[in-house]
Amino acid sequence: MVAEGADFVVGVDTHGKRHWFALVEVRTGALVREWELPARADGYRRALELVRHLGAGRRLWALEGSGCYGAGLARFLLAAGESVREVERPLRRGSQGRLKNDSLDALRAARAAFERPLPTPRADGAREGLRVLLATREQAVDVRRVGLNQLRSLLVTGPDGLRQRLSGLSPRRLPGRCSTLRVPADAGEAERASVLALKLCARRVLAATHEAQTLEREIEQTVRTLAPTLLAEPGVGPISAGFLLPGWSHHGRLRSEAAFARLAGSAPIPASSGKLTRHRLDRGGDRRLNRALHTIVLARRRSDPATIAYIQRRVSEGKSTREAVRCLKRYLARHLYRLLEQTTTTT
């Protein structure tokens, strides 16, 4: 395990304002000391000083939330030359799972390094910028979708004249027409209110559409800089590639393509019962990364001859279409992991 190369492991339960630390000796597994410090630069420095004083030797830091509340601490420790690993949030199952406080969580984080290999934190820099762009675009797309639904709803209950003029327009043209509506001089209160609501809602949709398009151009440029060959793959667009890169993060973070498949929720797990022998895909992992793989497979099913032939062959062998798609997602995870490891830049 990861802890075998260290003399001490520091488990950290991270929060917005304060972090809890637990120092564990690897040889005996004993808790040396635990403490709490503020989640800011002076707290990080004090924590490192304490660990250097109490844990002379090789050290390993195991952080919960290294991509969230612990991001600042992770950056500080990596800049100081410390060895840092990422720990998943513990499962709250069984009698031990019900025991919950910051001290226990920090201790569990430390001892997780004794049980299984831990990944390094996701890379900062351009990949972190890509994650921020994707999150902001998702919100803009959500605003656009909600706004379009609201426009349609307003038209359903709106005055007959407005409904007749606007009901046949496509979602692409509807916001533009609604944003230029004018209130007729002889309009009643209901029509006046409907026109105002349609105009403001349409302008919100147009603003969100422009924001999403701007972000998509920036995402595509970043992807082409980091992984020039990724967009050449069949079915891989800028958004899907944008989710693949932060999930994979950097060379050496994941120990194998099987670990990447597990992270992407595309690793087969047994699901047999009675006379039926079958597997299904893991429902855990990074669901955005899983969604990107699923989107790529759907695109390949429509236009990639090799993918179409593969699905037809597996169906002829007795598998269902869904089972053939599961096999494709596992193959795709293997292929894309190797491509990322071989061609992605270190920016």
Q: In terms of topology, how is this protein built?
A:
Blueprint: E1 8-13, E2 18-25, E3 31-38, H1 41-54, E4 59-64, H2 71-79, E5 84-87, H3 94-97, H4 102-115, H5 126-157, H6 160-166, H7 174-179, H8 189-226, H9 238-248, H10 257-263, E6 268-270, E7 279-281, H11 287-303, H12 305-316, H13 321-343
Parallel strand pairs: 1-4, 4-5
Antiparallel strand pairs: 1-2, 2-3, 6-7
Helix pairs in contact: 1-2, 5-8, 5-9, 8-9, 9-11, 10-13, 11-12, 12-13
Question: How would you characterize the overall build of this protein?
Answer:
There is one protein chain. With 347 residues, the chain is an alpha/beta fold. The protein has three domains: 2-115, Ribonuclease H-like superfamily/Ribonuclease H (Nucleotidyltransferase, domain 5), CATH 3.30.420; 126-226, no CATH class; 230-343, no CATH class. It has 13 helices and seven strands. It has helices at 41-54, 71-79, 94-97, 102-115, 126-157, 160-166, 174-179, 189-226, 238-248, 257-263, 287-303, 305-316, 321-343; strands at residues 8-13, 18-25, 31-38, 59-64, 84-87, 268-270, 279-281. The strands form two sheets. It has a five-stranded mixed beta sheet. It has a two-stranded antiparallel ribbon with strand order 6-7. Helix 1 (41-54) packs across helix 2 (71-79) and helix 5 packs across helix 9. The mean pLDDT is 86.
| Number of extended strands | 7
- The N- to C-terminal Cα distance equals 29 Å
Q: What proportion strand?
A: 5-15%
Give the strand order of the largest sheet, numbering strands 1, 2, ... along the chain. Answer: 3-2-1-4-5
Task: Summarize the amount of helix as a percent range.
Answer: 55-70%
By CATH, the architecture of the largest domain is named 2-Layer Sandwich
Which CATH class of the largest domain applies here? Answer: Alpha Beta
* SSE order, one letter for each helix or strand: EEEHEHEHHHHHHHHEEHHH
The rounded Rg comes to: 26 Å
Quickly count the domains.
3
Overall, the morphology is globular
The low-pLDDT segments are: none
Query: What's the CATH topology name of the largest domain?
Result: Nucleotidyltransferase, domain 5
Q: Kindly report the name of the CATH homologous superfamily of the largest domain.
A: Ribonuclease H-like superfamily/Ribonuclease H
Based on helices, strands and strand pairing, what is the structural class?
A: alpha/beta
Overall pLDDT level: 86
